[in-house]
Amino acid sequence: MHPVLATFLQNPNFLDVLYILAFSLFIQGLRGLAGPTTAVRGNRIAAVGMAIAVIATLLNPSEGNWGLIVLGLLLGTAVGVPAARNVRMTAMPQMVALFNGVGGGAVFLISWAEFRLTKGYANAATYVAIFSLFAAIVGSVSFWGSNIAFGKLQEIIPGRPISLGAAQQAVNLGLLALAVAAAVDIASGDHSQGIFIGMLVCAALLGNAVVLPIGGADMPVVISLLNAFTGLSAAATGIALNNTALIVAGMIVGASGSILTNLMATAMNRSIPAIVAGGFGGGGAVAGAAGAGEHAGTVRSTSAADAAIQLAYASRVVIVPGYGMAVAQAQHKIWELCQLLLDHGVTVKFAIHPVAGRMPGHMNVLLAEAGVPYDLIADLDEINAEFETADVALIIGANDVVNPVARTDKSSPIYGMPILNADKAKNVIVIKRGKGAGFSGIENALFYLDNTRMLYGDAQKAAAELIQAVKAVG
Fold it and tell me: pTM of the entire structure?
């Protein structure tokens, strides 16, 4: 490379301009992710911004050891690209949890490397030690917690809460206190690598201990919270390393993740501390789980033929997708059924609850994959008023997000949670695999109402039967 060109490319002012351009693209890309019609473009814009930030960092004259850098890039590309391309939409929550965990793992390893490089921060400013230690603890919690979230979503470990009971919070506080005490000791001048490793071990145990007691019903919020943790730890690492890209990108991830976590918690009418306390969801027994239907009547089943007649002769149908649709990969069949109904002159809309599925936007992603137009998809606030005028509410594998006890039973753990008002439709058809409770472990009173009929079976198979039956109606 020509010396003049090399000097220009490595000029601090030029690198600052590249970083500013990258950050502008980050923000513009994030804005694009706010809507389904602009999400793909937003993702690409943010990716270009990240590429510019990486290039700017590599141009820094202080960077070296190019062999390891190239090896890391090659390994990351070889693992990340095939994984992202081959993952099924139904497994996207697991992929998000895993990739988020990798970010936290990278942060605590960088902090460890910085500790070794500076001989226990002996030759580093105090602020470098403080931010690096913060990043190590939070990154480790995020890494191990995300692995547990992945395991629960992938059903490698039980989705139900796994805890030490009343002692769980004391254990969590004890592990946090030990990790913080070790960090304070190191920041005060102790250069022992054993203390640093002990701090990482306490943070790792804390990450496991915090997420294991959290049930599957709260998992969307947990994924968002861990994502915020990873962003904050990356920003702290950026301060310690004086890396502008890490600071800004980490703060964007941390801030957006925190906002999303709060929105998700609000959608469930649960506080974040209550979610972190765990013990709710995943099929475990919780207070109010049993006997919800004891005095509510009898569950009535229906056939595909009878359900098809109701759907084909309806004026307005609202479809409520849930995790059962995702598990059965039935989104394409449901869209085919929707097209048939539209051809019959039926007005059809899809109703999406903020926490339907296993992560924010899970149902939207599945419906987009099937080709459902965006104008047929409505969120809770938009659609709830329309249930009263709907002839049929067709529920596919959704449970807790349509449970009317959230409005009526003050003793229920989900009381006060905003739900989709499917029970207010003239008729309700529920496609469900079996008679078990939802992911929160709470029996659904909707199934016992006089206007509800249950169509038991795998969602994809049931949808295929409905398609044939609607075609037979003519």
Answer: 0.78
With beta carbons less than 8 A apart as the criterion, state whether 417 and 268 touch.
Answer: yes
In the annotation, is 400 catalytic? yes
Yes or no: say if 400 and 440 are a contact pair by the CB < 8 Å rule. yes
Contact 426, 391 (CB under 8 A): yes
User: pLDDT of 96-115, one tens digit each?
Assistant: 888 889 999 999 999 999 99
* Catalytic site residue from 379, 400, 409, 450: 400
Tokens 């008002």 correspond to what residue? 421
- Residue 437, Ramachandran bin (φ over 0: left; ψ between -120 and 50: alpha; else beta): beta
Report the distance separating Cα 400 and Cα 416, nearest Å. Answer: 12
Q: Pick from 241-250, 277-286, 435-444 the range whose average pLDDT is largest.
A: 241-250
**Among candidates 232, 236, 179, 167, which has minimal Cα distance to 207?**
179
Q: Is the Cβ–Cβ distance between 420 and 383 less than 8 Å?
A: yes
Confidence of residue 216 (pLDDT cuts 50, 70, 90): low
pLDDT at 290: 44
**Which amino acid belongs to residue 224?**
S
Cα end-to-end span (Å), the chain: 73
Decide if 78 contacts 102 (C-beta within 8 A).
Answer: no
Read off the tokens for 364. 């939207």
